[in-house]
Design a protein that fits this description.
Distance between the termini: 88 Å
Number of domains: 3
Shape: elongated
Largest sheet: 6 strands, antiparallel, barrel
Radius of gyration: 29 Å
Length: about 450
Amino acid sequence: MKPNFIFRILSVALLFLLALQGCTYQGKIRRGIYNHRDFKEKIPARVMVVADKFYREKIYLDNEHVYSFRLKDGLPIAVADALGTLFTEVEVNNYEFRKEYDYIVEIEYKGRVDLGNVEYRREGVLAPNYVLNPTLDTRLILTFRNPHTGYAIARYDENVHTLLPTDRIDTLLKITNILSSLTLGILYPLDLQVFGTKVRNRIEKNITYCLYKKIMPAIKEDRVNYQLSHETEQTNTRVDGALLPFMHATLFLHTTNGTGSGFLISPDGYIITNHHVVGKDRDVAVVFYDQRLLLDKAHPIQKYSQENLRAKVRFGKVIKTNKRRDLALVKIEGENLPYLELEQDRTQYATGQEVVAIGAPLGIEWSVSHGIVSAVRNTNGVDTLQTDAAINGGNSGGPLISKRTGKVLGVNSWGRVSTSFKDQAESLNFAISAYEVLRTLGISQPIDEDMLAMTAD
């Protein structure tokens, strides 16, 4: 058989294979990418990596969906292999079998390509060259849960940024790029497949790096969390004492504007908060005190994932707002709910009386600060209370409660922030009085729904 004939057959076969692939790359994360030694002392626990929920089975790294990568199988197995170096028994299984294990691990993976900075290179007087330096951003999140209660025990959120291979630094890519150009694009699919394979290899390396260098050492240092599930929950139990009834009636709100606070004023689910908390939203996510352990955060002031939060909580409907007076009324479905009583008698807003403010400053939910009523003021026609109880972003909409009567004196709204050395100020915070709430929103306690309907926006 002549060499020319063999070359022609191979060329046709190559073109046929490239035609089958088309102008897309479809890769998958391979099994067995994590290969590191076991820790010396393992944690005696059965752990299940959830295989069929919580992470996308396939990701795309470009808007045109040219490059796709299948995560299923390869990613959960890599996580299981990593956890198997520290725990005595680790399996990949479907969510329905979770109660057969001591802990379950949910996976979130986020990957994207950043084109990076444009590097200007002058290779000649008439030939300036602009070069992109693309990077691959890989973010891996593991959440450990008690499979019986659903409560989050710990969350590990790590990321890594690495340069993507380009034809400037990779010989094989340079060759395939030249071949594509010389054949007027006929061999472009070959160039695409080679680049896709390089990206897949980089994704696998990034996953391994996040696990080996960041997540596994952190889990090892947290080994005390994984002795027994019930011990962990007892350790995390709050001791709120006499403030517990007020905690149950105070809510954590999540809107498109961010996070804030609110509180129940009726057993059937009416909620008071600030207008600037709800903004233009028609519905808001509402989290109760008993659901606080479902809020997954790797750090106390880390921002919440709106997608994850909304999958776990109920929603309230915005019934009425007043932008100028910064008040809003929200309604959720329910009955026999814990609620707080508004102090309707304005003469009870005595200067000097002790108060507590409850809310979620900077997203640190159900925090309490203590102070006094510094003054009662009229601010542009709005009845307000000045207080030295700390009020920060996230406290907005929460209750300011009299320690003497247990009634709500006001709705925490804003604090003075110093912008210059000359105007420094501390403990200068304000709440809209309960009296103002009642007259502005046209409500009373108990709620008269007929009257509310007549005054609705």
